[in-house]
Structure formats: structure tokens, C-alpha cells
Amino acid sequence: MTEQSQTFIAKSTIKAGDLDHRRKINYNIGKYNAVVPKGKEQFADINLAKERAKNVKWRAIETLDLQLETFELNFTKRGGKVIWAENTEQAIEAVLAICKEKNCKTLVKSKSMVTEEIHLNDALEKNGIESIETDLGEYIQQLDGEAPYHIVTPAMHKSKEDVARLFNNKLGTPVNYTPEQLTQVAREILREKYTQAEVGVTGANFIIGDIGAVAVTENEGNARLSCAFPKTHIVIVGIEKMIPSMTDLALFWPMLSTFGTGQTLTVYNTIITGPRQPNETDGPEEMYVVLLDNGRTDILANPKQRQSLYCIRCGACLNVCPVYKNIGGHTYGTTYSGPIGSVITPNLQGMENFKHLSYASSLCGACTEVCPVKISLHELLLENRRESVQEGLAAFSEKMSWKLWKMASLKRGMMNMGNGDIKTRVVNSLFKGWAKHRNSLDFSKKTFNEMWKERNKD
Fold first, then answer.
1. What is the DSSP letter of 89?
2. How confident is the model over 24-49, as pLDDT tens digits?
3. Per residue in 170-218, pLDDT tens?
């Protein structure tokens, strides 16, 4: 058992029994569940919309090399610069080189899961650059020294009282401040940072091939300020965020809003096509797009796992997952949690260290049902399990246990042997890992085969 899996089991055991944590999560996800059906009403046929979204992403991923080259060609025509990063090290090296060139001391950053993936804040801090999260949820998490808890709502696990205590401890605000007052305090602090920052960093919800642009979706306006105030704007984005045409946004923006937050459309939706042009008064003087691979082409090369690259990071699968709702986002120990995180993390960071995530599922299929781009998440979790066995990552005891189970299952005489207490003791002794976190298996005194024969012996 790897260190990551041991940590996961230990943390999940504690979190599953934390009733206060469960109350907060159920409350926040309950609010989400109440508004999503309303958002879906904007679609005449939600299943048809999901099918079309899947087909667009299928086209984008199947022709990803051509789409990315088209994006680069169109983006650079307007003075933008594209940097191709194969891994975390190359992405960080590129960002630090730009910051050094601009003599950057302060950097403002909009919410971006891919910058969490490469641990950009840590790298900037080590190089003497102050990096400020400008999304309110991310700012709360940064103050608390925690990673995001959720793909869409980073501080979902905190109540308003938790945030008030945090602000009191870190910023000296009164402990009885309301959410509105706390938001105003954060706004005043962040507005000053926007004017000080030499560089702004954002992610991108979509990369648009035919016009060479990035699309950013948000509710607070912080991303717009992060890319408009500083003289240099850096976009760091995974290559899978590609869509072929700007017209595809007419489908993807409402889909992302509905499945992400239950809105018809998010408050701010921005298309950025490059740095400030000669006839424009707003925007950065320079704009860079860092296209990050970091294991994504490995997923692309796997025909069965490839569909996981369709993900638009709406977080819907997390909100319905019974495992996520019980153990929380931080327990996974990865950037991407929940069902989609359990699917892609073993393929991005190594099956050996993260295969256990594919077993952290009830396989109920709720994640597949809600996915707006129809990724078969529960089937991909099973595929991960199969691949881990094929790679020889199963323990010897596990292999032997299943071999004995298979032998017994194929022989009726063995299946009927030692019914009741004997079979129960033998199986529970073989599958100790099962009983450690679940109830012990308890076999009946007679098999169905024996009961059927007795019933029909005449």
C-alpha cells in the first residue's frame, strides 16, 4: 500500500465520521440542488444539448493537434504569445521568466485549477513574488493555508461563522461581521492589489480555435480585473479546454453555468483575443498563453480514457457523489477531487500512487448521469481498476484471493462447501481489507442452489 493510499484511508475514516463537516456540505450542496433544475429549464431538450456538447468536445479532442495549431496561428496574429509546456517544470519556468523580465513583485491571480495543479503559488513565493488569489473563495482558502476544496466552490466546506473567525484571526475584523461585510473587507484589500500588480494570471474555461481566443467565465469580475489592470497577462490552461469555434460558446456557456452553479448564465463571460491593440484603451500591453500538457497527451493516447478530456470542470459530478459528500475534497490529496479527479489523477500522476482513488466509488453512476458532456465516469473508474491490475499493481495476496474466489465460483461443489460459519470465517480472513472499513461478510447457511433443490426435490 502506497503512502498516498494510506493517507487517503486515514483521512477518509476521520472525515466520514465528522457530522459537522457533513452538515455544512449537505447544506451547500442542497442549495445547489435547489437551483440546478431551474437552470435546466432554459434548454428545450437537455439530453439533446448534452449530446451536442459531447459531440463538439469529441471533435475538438480527436483533432486536438490541428485545433491547437489553429489557435496559436490566430492568437499570435494579434500580438499574443503562445508557450507550449510539456510538464509542471516548464510551465513554472516560463511564468518565472516572464515575471523576472517584468521585474514583478506582486502578482494577482484569478481562480484557476491548473495553477493549483502545478503549485504556482509555492513557486512564486519561493522566488520572492507575492501572489494574491482574487476569487473570494480562493482568497479565503489562501488565508487559511488550504488548497481548494471543490472545483467550482473552493471554500464549500466553510460556514459563514468559519470565515468570520478566519478573517478575525488573519485580518483583525470583528468576529460578528456578516458575509456582506466580510466581502467588502476582501474587496478593499484586493482592489489595492490590482493597482500594484505588475502581472495578472488567469486560467481559461475554453480555448477557441477559429478566432484564437480564450474564454473566461466568472461571477465576481476578479478575472477581468486580473487581466486588465496589470501590464502583463498570463493565461495558463490545459490543452483539453479546446473548442473549435466561438459559436460553440452559445451552448457551452449556458451548460457550464447550469451544471456548475444552477445559473442561466454566469455574471461575467469574457472573450480575450490578445493584448491591447493600438486603437484600444484597456487591457494588458502583453499577453501570453501557456498551453499545458502535463500528462494530458498520455490520456489522449488511451482510446478508452480519452473521453475524460471532454470535462468542462463544472463540478456537477462532485455534487452528486456520495463518497465526495462524505469524505470531502481535501481527503483525496489531489488537485482534482470527486469522480472526475478519481478518473484523471491516476492517468496524470501515475497509476501506482493513485489507483486507490478508482476504488473510492460506489459505482452508482450518478456522476455519469449528471455530466453535461456525457462522460461515462463510472465506466472509466472500472477501466482504471482494470488497467492497474494489468500493470501488475495488485498485491500478491489480492491476486491469490481472487484466484481462489474464481476457482470456487466455477465449481458448484466448492460453492456449496462449508456453508454458514465456516465459509464466513474463511472469506473474512482472506479479505481482511474489506472488513476493516465495512461490515464483515456473512454467508447464509445454505446457497440458493441448495435451497432450490430442496424446494423442487419432489
1. H
2. 999 999 999 999 999 999 999 999 99
3. 999 999 999 999 999 999 999 999 999 999 999 999 999 999 999 999 9
Residues ≥6 apart with Cβ < 8 Å to 337: 149, 150, 151, 318, 324, 329, 330, 331
List Cβ neighbours of 52 (8 Å cut-off, separation of 6 or more).
251
3-state secondary structure of 21: helix
The neighbour count for residue 30, using CB atoms within 10 Å, is 10
Closest CA to 329 of 12, 19, 34: 12
DSSP secondary structure, 326-372, as one string = HH-SGGG-SSS-HHHHHHHHHHHH-HHHHGGGGGS-----HHHHH-T
For domain 44-294, the question of CATH label 3.40.50.10420 is answered with: yes
Domain ranges of the chain: 1-41+316-394, 44-294, 401-455
Residue in the structure block whose three cell numbers are 460553440: 248
At 351, phi and psi to the nearest 5?
-65, -35
3-state SS class at 30: helix
Q: In whole angstroms, what is the distance from residue 341 CA to residue 367 CA? A: 12
CA atoms within 13 A on the CB side of 391: 14
